Amino acid sequence: MTDADSTIWQISGGGAGRSHADILLKYGVGIIGPGDGGPWKPGRDDGDFEGSYVRRFASEAQVGDVFLLRTGISTIRAIGVVADSYQYLEQFDDVNGLDLQHCRRVRWFQLPEEYTFDNSVFGANPPRFSMVWKEQVTDYARRMLNSPPTNWQQAFLPDLPATEPELHDIPEHLQAIVGEVQDVYPMLWDRDSFGELPTEDELVGHFVIPFLRASGWPTERIAVKWRYIDVAVFNTLPRVPEHCRFIIEAKRLGSGVEGALEQAKGYVGSLGVACDIIVTDGVRYRMYSAKNDYEPCAYANLARLKTSALNLFEMVKRI
To answer: How far is CA 245 from CA 174, 228, 248, 268, in A?
Structure first.
């Protein structure tokens, strides 16, 4: 059991359309961003990390402290005990498009079902990481920690994921579009110099269609806004449902492409035929297999390419 004086913290498991709670539970970690600025070290300015969250996560949270895995403004999915000191792990440089390399090992206990407090105990806009003060939350946490079973608090930590190599040898036919994405992507997030984020239609026009054309698909086999589908790709003409190779559902940058799957499955259902689905924000592409009940089967982030992206490139390429 943990010390009665252990500090209790909440850590975000991501938004509804961009949840990474499963990653935290699977690998026994607490992870936060932004991580692309490099490891936290004493003396680094909070401005390097968009505020004090990373500093507090790395230096104030102690081994034996308690983490609550938050999934909403009043909901938690798991309770955990901090097991190790701060680490900076490149394995988490692309978690659903987020750079979350700041890491603490955590022994998690997943609740039988998400627990919802009777009001927004974490605030209307809770931060990615913060200390918990509200008495109803701290009382709940301490009761859970001292209720059997408690053996999880000393259990072996799961293995961390292997670091995936970066993809340096980009296929020649994709070098131009990948280069453009990597040049433009950082600019899109600079509100002062760029302005509002581009719309879904802009992302389709600037990134998705050029990616498909570079992958060998001729113009006539790429339909835009076809039967309410953002993009549909056809093996042959005419452009009818039974010739559809895959559909693409586009979302805005930062909205979380994973949350678009259910909407895309609805569109496929309306076609009356099974075809693969890609969800994208123009930069990240995740493919789901129709043959395997729409389990994810390939992924690529054009702004942060890993060797596994070759699988998606091969699946998208025109046969």
So the answer is: 20, 16, 10, 11
Tokens of 304: 């942060």
At 217-272, the pLDDT tens digits run 999 999 999 999 999 999 999 999 999 999 999 998 866 677 788 999 999 999 99
pTM listed for this prediction: 0.82
| Pairing status of strand 276-280 against strand 244-250 | parallel
Rounded CA separation 198/194 (Å): 10
Spatial distance between the Cα atoms of 63 and 210, rounded to a whole number of angstroms: 49
The rounded distance, in Å, linking the Cα atoms of 28 and 26 is: 6
**Which domains does the chain possess?**
8-154 (3.10.590), 172-316 (3.90.1570.30)
Residue 105's DSSP bridge partners are 29
Q: Can you read off the two tokens belonging to residue 125?
A: 């806009």
SS3 assignment, position 174: helix
- Mapping DSSP to helix (H, G, I), strand (E, B) and coil, where does residue 268 land? helix
Q: Of the candidates 221, 248, 216, 224, which has an alpha carbon nearest to the alpha carbon of residue 237?
A: 221
Q: Taking Cα atoms as reference points, which of 194, 170, 172, 173 lies closest to residue 302?
A: 170
Phi/psi of residue 105, nearest 5 degrees? -75, 135
Q: Which of 255, 261, 269 is nearest to 299 (CA)?
A: 261
Beta-strand (E) ranges in the chain? 8-12, 29-32, 66-70, 75-82, 87-88, 102-116, 129-131, 222-226, 229-234, 244-250, 276-280, 284-289, 295-301
